[in-house]
Write a structure and sequence with these properties.
Radius of gyration of chain A: 24 Å
Largest sheet of chain A: 6 strands, parallel
Number of strands of chain B: 9
CATH superfamily of the largest domain in chain B: ACT domain
Bound molecules: flavin-adenine dinucleotide, thiamine diphosphate, magnesium ion
Number of helices of chain A: 23
Oligomer: heterodimer
Radius of gyration of chain B: 18 Å
CATH architecture of the largest domain in chain B: 2-Layer Sandwich
Structural class of chain A: alpha/beta
Helix content of chain B: 25-40%
Largest sheet of chain B: 5 strands, antiparallel
Order of helices and strands of chain B: EHEEHEEHEEHEE
Largest interface: A-B, 17 and 21 residues
Distance between the termini of chain A: 72 Å
Strand order of the largest sheet of chain A: 3-2-4-5-7-6
Shape of chain B: elongated
Chain lengths: 566, 163
């Protein structure tokens, strides 16, 4: 039977297991939306801005591990998706973005609502496709999903001209695809892995440095198994948080600019650094020349370009971290001393780290007169479900969440790390909640970033998404203010928000519940009430306005040059 | 270090801009670039000349390989490759310099492809070093215009290099 392009697209999505999409209609996708009208197998959620639609699909993907799907119309709809796409690209999130395009005959004519979205998104997608013939559509969709989710994941954009949506052809969905220029190396080289394990077992002061790759590969369990088997302490990047339980005694928490004292000390003094699915970002390394100066470096990554991009590597292993970790465990059992012996051998190193932990634990100065933002984060952890999902926006509140929440499971922290996109949090939480209607989903926002996509309150209320919104309100663009305090003589240029907003009324205007805490004693009450209230709730906490995120490694300094909390 | 890199790509729309965009986006140098279809018409072959230390060249080849439309990347070692480029040069040629231009053309086995009372236009092909040696000799005589294809490269020996 012949189907039109619009229908074929939906059939492709169904065959890829897509059950939820986020999209915004317009002239060049109106045919697609007409098909969607009677296509009941896919839930379509209408955001209030295409950027938010893409963030929502991204949050859905981060939380569920599935490919997120978003739709936008041509021209302004398509250009509105850019920040969302770039955010996903920087954090390697699997997504397929479908944009409408003007009819093929008009492409290049400056037609109404035409934008060269293929050209615009070339540097911020893993790949993109313009569908010129309806006969190619099914194969292109198959390729798009395959590219998005395999190797180093990433967003793929498919630009679909209006006439291709209308044109008809026989529909066959290919079982598999073959792309001769795309063959990601999944299996780690056994010889390299053997060498790595042998080297690691020789080390006296090893540290495992875990990144988002472990979460993307669904390899948290394998990571824990290897770390335990070898007795090695683990630090994670922002993107890796949750891959290794932070309540484990061998957890060092976050490293880098706002990392823990002991993680940064451990990395700076280790003799062996095992980087797993991490990309040596400048927020992590500080000054490259003094990063892990005594260490041999083993680097496991599926993307060869990540290896030796910023730092020297003694032993690279290209492959999927899950495969590599499984093989490492086997090799360890074959060649090495047993777990007990490994642990005993590292006891002096663990003792050294414990000293650092004792000397400068993660801390802040509690207050009785004003709500400390860190305290709110700790109480959120204490009063929420163990499997709660936490999205964040970008800024100080994001770092406090990373430092003080204590993540114990993968895919429970959703945060824009690479691009650092303000406005990400609320729609991302909305997407995660759509993926897990029955799990507790909250977003921790700043007062600034919340306002960048607050229109999504409407989407959340309309779709009965039970998102709990936490605003740490310092009435400042706090993160920038902190830099101005430290490096620009407190010249608070355009970082004070001036206008106090009535967030309770705002929530109510959208049909959500609004709660507020202004005193320390009210914090628990508001959180409890917020979590107990059915439906979307906005909880505003008026927090200490000039609190700083500490420790902090000033930009360009070495990891040991931390400004500490006390 | 100067490197001549051959890139075999899908002969599809937009591929060249992916390659060029990669270089501009990441701040890599391109000294020259040529592109044309190969004997397999589904493929095009790009030859580009770039510069950088070992680490940069490694990133360049890895980043090129990462592009979905790129099928193969070879960073040719000079001793295992043959490089050729073609230049067309327009030189002033009046009075006594007319003979000199022809002598130089003869030495480098360049062809005269256009003549006027005031100029010669030469076509020369060869290894980049040879071609530029000729150009340097012509320069003082009044080099008016120079156009070059940039080098193309092929491996030495019987082994061919297909998609
Ligand atoms: C305000 C602010 C402050 C920040 N401060 C810090 C900080 O103090 N500390 C910190 O750590 N970060 C911080 N970040 C985040 C930082 O910018 C980077 O996003 C982060 O450090 C990158 O994490 P990652 O190395 O885990 O890389 P990711 O971006 O998560 O990259 C994952 C890596 O894993 C690889 N990979 C993917 N899938 C697989 C697979 N299946 N198998 C193998 N490999 C795979 C990829 O190729 C890639 O190299 C901050 C961000 C903001 C916005
Ligand atoms: C879209 C965007 N614009 C600007 C920035 C720069 N920036 C980073 S953090 C920050 C301040 C965020 O303020 P707020 O949301 O109130 O959070 P706080 O730091 O106060 O917790 C700014 C402006 C950014 N990351 N993203
Ligand atoms: Mg703020």
């Amino acid at each position: 039977m012949k189907l039109n392009g619009a229908r074929i697209l939906l059939e492709c999505l169904k065959r890829e297991g897509v059950d939820t999409i986020f999209g915004y209609p317009g002239g060049t996708v109106i045919n697609l939306y007409d098909e969607l009208f009677s296509f009941k197998e896919i839930r379509h959620i209408l955001p209030r801005h295409e950027q938010a639609g893409v963030h929502a699909a991204d949050g859905y993907a981060r939380a569920t591990g599935k490919v997120g799907v978003a739709i936008a119309t041509s021209g302004p709809g398509a250009t509105n998706t850019i920040t969302g796409i770039a955010t996903a690209y920087m954090d390697s999130i699997p997504m397929v973005i479908i944009t409408g395009q003007v009819p093929t005959a008009l492409i290049g004519n400056d037609a109404f609502q035409e934008a060269d979205i293929i050209g615009i998104t070339r540097p911020c997608t893993k790949h993109n496709f313009l569908v010129k013939d309806v006969k190619d559509l099914a194969t292109i969709m198959k390729k798009a999903f395959y590219i998005a989710r395999t190797g180093r994941p990433g967003p793929v954009l498919v630009d679909l001209p209006k006439d291709v949506q209308i044109a008809q052809t026989e529909f066959h969905y290919p079982e598999s695809v073959e792309i001769r220029g795309y063959k990601p190396t999944v299996e780690g080289h056994p010889k390299q892995i053997e060498k790595a394990v042998a080297m690691i077992m020789q080390a006296k002061k090893p540290v495992i440095y875990v990144g988002g790759g472990v979460i993307l590969a669904n390899a948290a369990a394998e990571l824990v198994a290897v770390a335990k088997r070898l007795g090695i302490p683990v630090t994670t990047t922002l993107m890796g948080l949750g891959a290794y339980p932070e309540n484990d005694p061998h957890s060092l928490g976050l490293l880098g600019m706002h990392g823990t004292y002991y993680a940064n000390m451990a990395v700076s003094h280790c003799d062996m650094l095992i980087a797993i699915g991490a990309r040596f970002d400048d927020r992590v390394t500080g000054k490259i020349a003094s990063f892990a100066p005594h260490a041999k470096i083993v680097h496991v990554d599926v993307d060869p370009t990540s290896i030796k991009k910023n730092v020297r590597v003694d032993l690279p292993i290209v492959g999927d971290v899950r495969d590599v970790l499984q093989k490492m465990l086997k090799v360890a059992d074959e060649i090495g001393p047993d777990a007990k012996a490994c642990e005993a051998a590292l006891a002096p190193w663990i003792a050294e780290i414990d000293e650092w932990k004792k000397k400068h634990p993660m801390t802040y100065k509690q207050s009785t007169s004003v709500i400390k933002p860190q305290y709110v984060i700790q109480r959120l952890r204490a009063l929420s479900d163990p499997d709660a999902i936490v999205a964040t926006d970008v800024g100080q509140h994001q770092m406090w969440t990373a430092q003080f929440f204590g993540f114990t499971a993968p895919r429970t922290l959703l945060s824009s790390g690479g691009l650092g996109t303000m406005g990400f949090g609320l729609p991302a939480a909305m997407g995660a909640q759509a993926g897990f209607p029955d799990r507790q989903v909250m977003v921790v926002c700043g007062d600034g970033g919340f306002q960048m996509n607050m229109q999504e309150l409407a989407t959340i209320v309309q779709n009965r998404l039970n998102v709990k919104i936490v605003i740490l309100n310092n009435n400042f663009l706090g993160m920038v203010r902190q830099w101005q305090e430290l490096f620009f003589d407190k010249r608070y240029s355009s970082t004070c928000m001036e206008l106090p907003i009535d967030f309770i009324k705002l929530a109510e205007a959208f049909g959500a519940t609004g709660l507020q805490a202004t005193k320390v004693e009210e914090v628990d009450e508001v959180i409890k009430k917020g979590f107990a209230t059915d439906g979307p709730v906005l909880m505003e906490f008026k927090v200490a306005r000039e609190e700083k995120v500490l420790p902090m490694v000033p930009a360009g300094a070495s990891l040991t040059e931390m400004v500490l909390a006390s | 270090m100067r490197h001549t890199i051959a890139v075999l790509v899908e002969n599809e729309f937009g591929v060249l801009s992916r390659v060029v965009g990669l270089f501009s986006g990441r701040g890599f140098n391109i000294d020259s670039l040529t592109v044309a279809p190969t004997n397999d018409e589904a493929l095009s072959r790009i030859t580009l000349v770039t510069r950088g230390d070992e680490q940069i060249i490694e990133q360049i080849t890895k980043q090129l390989n990462k592009l979905i439309d790129v099928i193969k990347v070879i960073d040719f070692e000079p001793e295992h490759a043959i490089e050729r480029e073609m230049v067309l040069v327009k030189v002033s040629a009046e009075d006594q310099s007319r003979a000199e231009v022809l002598r130089i053309a003869d030495i480098f086995r360049a062809k005269v492809i256009d003549v006027t009372p005031k100029s010669y236009t030469l076509e020369a092909t060869g290894a980049p070093a040879k071609v530029s040696a000729m150009v340097e000799l012509l320069r003082p005589l009044g080099l008016k215009e120079l156009v070059s294809t940039g080098p193309v490269v092929i491996g030495r020996g019987a082994k061919a290099w297909k998609g």
